[in-house]
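Task: complex structure prediction.
Instruction: return structure tokens for all chains below.
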Amino acid sequence: MSTASFATRPLPGEPRPYAFPRFERRTLSNGITLVVAPVHRLPIVTVIAVTDAGSVADPLGREGLASLVAAMLAEGTASMDGEMLALRFERLGTSFSAYADWDVGVASMTVTRSHLADALALFAETLTAPSFPARELERLKAERLAELLQLRTEPRGLADEMMAHFVYAPESRFARPMAGGAAAVEAITARDVGELYTARYRAGGTTIVMAGDVSTDDALALLEESFGVWGGSAPAPIAVVDAPSPGARTVHVVTKADAPQSEIRVAHVGIPRIHPDYFRVTVMNAVLGGLFSSRINLNLRERNAYTYGARSEFDWRRAAGPFVVSTAVASEATAAATREILAEIDRMRSEPITEEELTLATSYMSGVFPIRYETTAAIATALANLVVYGLDDSYFDTYRANIESVTTTDVLEAAQRHLHPERLRIVVIGDPAEVAGPLAALDAGPVSLYDAEGSPLGS
Amino acid sequence: MSTASFATRPLPGEPRPYAFPRFERRTLSNGITLVVAPVHRLPIVTVIAVTDAGSVADPLGREGLASLVAAMLAEGTASMDGEMLALRFERLGTSFSAYADWDVGVASMTVTRSHLADALALFAETLTAPSFPARELERLKAERLAELLQLRTEPRGLADEMMAHFVYAPESRFARPMAGGAAAVEAITARDVGELYTARYRAGGTTIVMAGDVSTDDALALLEESFGVWGGSAPAPIAVVDAPSPGARTVHVVTKADAPQSEIRVAHVGIPRIHPDYFRVTVMNAVLGGLFSSRINLNLRERNAYTYGARSEFDWRRAAGPFVVSTAVASEATAAATREILAEIDRMRSEPITEEELTLATSYMSGVFPIRYETTAAIATALANLVVYGLDDSYFDTYRANIESVTTTDVLEAAQRHLHPERLRIVVIGDPAEVAGPLAALDAGPVSLYDAEGSPLGS
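Output:
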């Protein structure tokens, strides 16, 4: 090619303005809240139904029930069995998926516009008239128990479970795994499933989000047709206990004999998603351990070569989810890596980050923002979160400005307010013979030993 | 709301026409092929560089080299180390990722339009001037060896590896894992890495795909600037051996003592991606085992409750990848499940599928088609595949018509031509004490036993 074409080379300049899609709210005659984002790029629509049926609704001793109820929705309705349901969704070029997270039950599908009405009828039947066949419940329970067994053999899954166990007060639902333990899952009966469904899956507590090739009026009409006969007022709100386990910093070593590696979690109870410090904390965590170029990752991975990767996160929930630093290191590096994690948390609270660190974090978050919401599924999920967490309708339009307005002083203050070195729980899954001594020598708190099931050793 | 609004209810009708984005081809002055799909929905661009450096280029005894070379690209260049590289990509709100599949090396990033020029400069340096630091090579090798060890403890990974081992002739690269075995990875030296890079990463053999908010002229100018100085003619084509292991149907039991479950693979060598029967075979496989409502899944999961799921696939490569049926069942159901799989393969070849089965498969594939290409990354990946497999430029525009034109007779003929019951390798990872007897009684072929490493027992 000739050099003349260089004249057309685009110059880097200001980002073209990006705007999150417009959306509108409506209410159906039966109380269902509707949020619609008409996005007509492609002839497809994502539908997400959010019910007030998260794992925080699990009764004591039935942990995992909300997850199981969500999974059971697809197993059959009054008029057809699970196989027929799956087949009919497949015939419409889509599939139904459902799960429960801590706060809500979520059901979703993405379908072409031409099949939307038929798919919505099927989607509504699945959500509003499930039959919960006993045979399928037993099958799903067995499947879940096998998964739990598998998860416990993986140090990563065990570490996350033990972290929650040591961080939260025993009476908190958050102290036990979202999908439940073996005893709880085994105890779940068809009656439990029916009771949770009846109590929590109700028109009054449900929001349906539609994003894609549909107008608000059409969405409303389609939903009146498919979901209109569903009833039920909003379920009673749940008082979620997110209290920390009492006491000062402690170290917990859970036995994995002869493990060449240790899984490390350093954690305490964080803050609720709706907290006014959300943006400051998010930027602070990005610098601490949220990005590849974060302090904890550069320290543990690049400077000390203890690990292939280390990260920190605030796990956002309606109530206070945990703040957790996670990594895996060679056994002999366990205490040294823990010391570095504690040092990075302390440094975050004792001196401001540099302007360069701030800019890296904010420009990353600002830069990936439009990439995050490319699909109708991503847009619908974002809007569902808006509803679940009660965020302001202007949230997405002001997101980048909110991120970019965070200062190094904000970050320091957020670290001082929301990182609590004195309350940390240091949880290590590893070989006690190798790691207990060095961890005790760290002087980071009293060290307790546990067997592979998490029961205290020597008691 | 009033019932009047029902008047606005949309009626299901013909699908709105969906069109895959327009794209253009260009050639850079140094021989790089450029494919650009300008899609201006959002201010973002995906860039994919495809090099003729897939795992089929691995020398004998150095299996895994191409994968390692791709992973090493991000570990440093002439002017900066891996940490600085990652940091600079992160600052631009993106990240560099690279891997090798069987046929090609693939590097990619998705970035906002405003950062495209800067990110392309970095992307080009990463691809064209890697420094392959020795310390990072050792770290990546250790990481890879740990992954291989982990994979072998999972019956699923072991089953896939053993399937390839028994299906392909020993001299085929496809007989050994893409990421290599422990001995091969350990043997890889810095010189091996440099040699494969020099031989296969060359402007002449490279295609760059850009999809998103960029015009073809701008893309060409940006690439001349960033990649223009890169040289090298197209690398020599590789003669890929995809011959099957010789002989008639056999059964191979690889020991996993006391396993409560068996992993089952029933497989033979399939056909190359570019085969004229591609659409017929794809529809045939959808009915046989590609969909939830496929015969194999309904038989094993719904009718017999042997398993949580069973599927079949043709693994598409430039040369002939395998046709594989995969499932996991309780040990005592191993022989019965195998019998049902063989029966479904036979039935596919002996009688036509029903019109209903055909419609389900074709309407599913036609229905999900627009949903597949929602993101710039998905569009760019689709175009990269077009290049890798040498498909026609009209491929995406004619896809739905090609799928919908497949008849039940086509499916029967495709099954008769491309399913080979007499050549199958039946591979079971399980407890020989439990499964060997019943498998022998099936009379599906001679049964051989192997230890946990895949070495023949009793020899």
